[in-house]
Amino acid sequence: MKLNDKNILLISPEPWSHLKVSKHHYAIYLADRNNRVYFLNPPTSGRIRYDNTEYSNVYSVHYDGFYAGMRFYPKFLRQYLMRQKLQDIQSTCHVDFDIIWSFDNSVFFDFEALSKRAFYISHIVDLNQNFQLDQAAKTADICLANSRAILQKLKRVNKKSFFVNHGYNDLNNREGQIKLPGKNKIKVLYAGNLDIIYLDWASMDLISTNHQNVDFVFMGKCEKLSTIFKKENVHYIGIVPAEHLYSYYIKADILLLCYLADEYESQLSNPHKLMEYLGSGKLIVATKTLEFEHLKNSNLLLMSDKNLTFPKCFTKALDNIDSLNRIKYQKERRNIALNNTYARQIDKVEMIIEQNGK
Fold this sequence. Notes:
Layout: E1 7-11, H1 22-31, E2 36-40, E3 49-52, E4 58-62, H2 75-93, E5 99-102, E6 119-124, H3 133-139, E7 142-145, H4 148-155, E8 161-163, E9 186-191, H5 201-210, E10 214-219, E11 234-236, H6 245-249, E12 254-257, H7 272-280, E13 283-286, E14 301-303, H8 310-319, H9 321-324, H10 327-338, H11 342-356
Parallel strand pairs: 1-2, 1-5, 2-4, 5-6, 6-7, 7-8, 9-10, 9-12, 10-11, 12-13, 13-14
Antiparallel strand pairs: 3-4
Helix pairs in contact: 5-8, 7-10
């Protein structure tokens, strides 16, 4: 089956109005291939309806979801309700879906109940998507995962489970005129949600104290500023639109990935941020990240084995900054990201479907 000229229902745990993440990018890139993509938002109150989006061939679909606790219903009733809801969505959208591509196993998790003509993909990109994972995986035609930890869970119930790395949105590679704050020559940057529990603030506090001649720049959502921001060489610049991130990355000398990997190893096996960082070409200093451990001795990134050794790893990066940010290494980093663009990932999925179709 070719992934073009198809009617695709893409089931997302985040709404279309959310900051664009992998589900949104897959929808946009699939639409570029002349597919008609119906992006199913999380359930809300109100009637089933769909709206045009700012992208041609991408439609935002709203529906009222299911009754609470449906997973406990008798199988025949659960399947009837799912089948009826899908029919209602198809009727409203005036379409029969060829492919149902689900990133959310909390809804429509029993594909066996649905139309036999459609092709079903269970695609898990977040470890917290563990609601009805087994049932969704077991009844899907293929399963996709972006980390080995997730892949192992899927393979237990469906042998047709495959690794597809995070996608890279190369459409954002447009340089804007920005300047990072601070008076020091070397700029270190972290971008992301600063409220998550996985951040290793202790290590970042230590390296910013030990290296007063370096500016540390943080950007992203932050409800409560850490005491680290009181330092003269630490700067917070707030939330930056996704389409502008690349402009900031390429102005930095080092990009940080500093998580509590010792405590949350499985959760942090493959953060999406790392692919974005690689796309900038700049040196990355990271705590342990399973999917990229093969790069830690390649000069493309420096990675600590334990959080305790992260400060030492960071010092090594500073001592070798000019060498490690040579054009040669920047090109190699960018090439890794460019080999994982969303367009390429869709090519990979297309090949998987053709080799493992119904």
